[in-house]
Amino acid sequence: MNCWHCNKELIWGGDFDYEDYDLEGDGIVSNLSCPNCEAYVEVYWNNNKKKEIPDSIKKILIEKDKAMKRYTDKIRKENKCQINQKQKGIGLKDRL
Hints:
Layout: E1 11-17, E2 27-33, E3 40-46, H1 55-87, H2 92-95
């Protein structure tokens, strides 16, 4: 599995049962990380034949999505600031 951000191969960190995450149902949560850009990925696999995602997982996914959006917005803002500073001839060392 490759990183969505930089396309490098992710490193598998481990697998956990749903009960380790206090989730309902039977399933596995796998975690992976990117050695290049330090992205972190959790994969939720549900062994149920039902197509519906349990509410406990929906809640986690919604919260993680919100947190990821806040983090991504922050990084984009910082990168834009750094680019603007470089264009003006002011380096990162000058700002510190």
